[in-house]
TrEMBL record:
Every Chalcone/stilbene synthase N-terminal domain range: 40-202
UniProt-recorded name of the protein: Type III polyketide synthase
Keyword vocabulary terms for this entry: Acyltransferase, Transferase
Domain of life: Bacteria
Organism: Gramella jeungdoensis
Length: 350
């Protein structure tokens, strides 16, 4: 029995802007700040490797002072809509009925809602009354892969079952107008909003890449590197500039023992399905693999087209690979990083 990824679908919010269209809004926002600082921030936006981003609010509203309550209300409304749409799309395109799901995992870290999204999806789509549900929060960018890891473990223990992982994120709902720190500038420059859904199955005779192995890797003494502080105005980004360097230092320990455990090596892995955390992280990973003849072009392209959508982003990269004609037997590795600090890994075989 093996667990396979059957389908991946994505869903985007209604608002979008090219980076060049956002720059005047950034300039207005920075009015009154020191001129050198303003030029530096504009260069950060221009050099972020993001050509376009989507948001649950109009860009004009993003740069308008609103309360935590107002922004979170928009988050709740739009997360419900995007989550329902992307799950419906995935089920429809796979020929699955909603009540055929046995396990549902919802992933988000950019707002707060209780009940969690999965409860609303069960009602909206009339999923099974006895479906097992798991909301995953507070794991940031790593949680898309975390959700697949949890689904894989459920399905390995329950042959003949089906699972859905639904990731919906809105980093724009966390944007802080009064925060002029570099962490806020960099996050504003790279992040966008989006949703994705992954369907998995432990049934026989289903097609899709199978999961050969999965594992988490936790960095010690690193909880300060990434996350959110909860302040009166909402969720305030924590993003330490040491993240790329820290990833680079740990990279051999993250990749090689994991692959060896599953009787393979990076030389035998054909496809790199990596989370585009930002331009510097993408470049760090690209440099580490360049001498092996590997590339992360799909990762870089997802960042360019959508920005970093936190947990959903690596699923956008995975969706691109599922649309390719990949020969049987070829392997791929999924990788994302998130608060903790941690790395999440999955080994796939087509």
């Amino acid at each position: 029995m093996s667990v396979k990824i059957v389908n991946v679908e994505k869903e985007l919010p209604e608002y979008s802007r090219n980076t060049q269209e956002i720059l005047p809004l950034v300039e207005n926002w920075l009015d009154g700040q020191e001129e050198r600082f303003r030029r530096k921030v504009l260069k950060i936006f221009e050099g972020a490797g993001v050509d376009k981003r989507y948001s649950i609010m109009s860009p004009e509203d993003v740069f308008t002072a609103t309360s935590f309550e107002e922004k979170n209300n928009i988050y709740v409304r739009e997360v419900k809509r995007l989550g329902k749409n992307v799950l419906e799309k995935a089920l429809h395109n796979s020929g699955w009925a909603g009540d055929s799901l046995d396990f549902i995992i919802t992933v988000s870290c950019t707002g707060i809602m209780i009940p969690s999204l999965d409860a609303y999806l069960i009602n909206e789509l009339e999923l099974k009354r006895d479906i097992t549900r798991l909301p995953v929060t507070e794991m940031g960018c790593a949680a898309g892969i975390s959700g697949i890891i949890y689904a894989n473990n459920f399905l390995k223990a329950n042959p003949g079952k089906r699972a859905a992982v639904v990731a919906v994120e809105s980093p724009t709902a966390t944007f802080q107008l009064e925060d002029f720190s570099m962490a806020n500038m960099v996050s504003a420059a790279i992040f966008g909003d989006g949703a994705a859904c992954v369907l998995l199955s432990s049934e026989e005779n289903v097609s899709g890449p199978k999961i050969l192995g999965e594992e988490m890797y936790h960095f010690y003494n690193s909880t300060h590197l990434m996350g959110f502080d909860l302040i009166n105005n909402g969720l305030q980004m924590i993003l330490d500039p040491a993240v790329p360097e820290t990833i680079s230092e740990h990279f051999p320990a993250i990749i090689h023992p994991f692959l060896e455990k599953h009787n393979t090596s990076i030389e035998k892995v054909d496809h790199l399905v990596f989370h585009p955390g930002g331009r510097k992280i993408v470049q760090t990973v690209s440099d580490l693999f360049g001498n092996l003849g590997k590339n992360i072009d799909d990762t870089r392209e997802v960042l360019r087209l959508y920005g970093n959508m936190s947990s959903a982003t690596v699923l956008y990269v995975l969706e691109r690979f599922l649309k390719k004609e990949i020969p049987e037997g070829e392997q791929g590795i999924m990788l994302s990083f998130g608060p903790g600090f941690s790395a999440q890994r999955i080994l796939l075989e087509w």
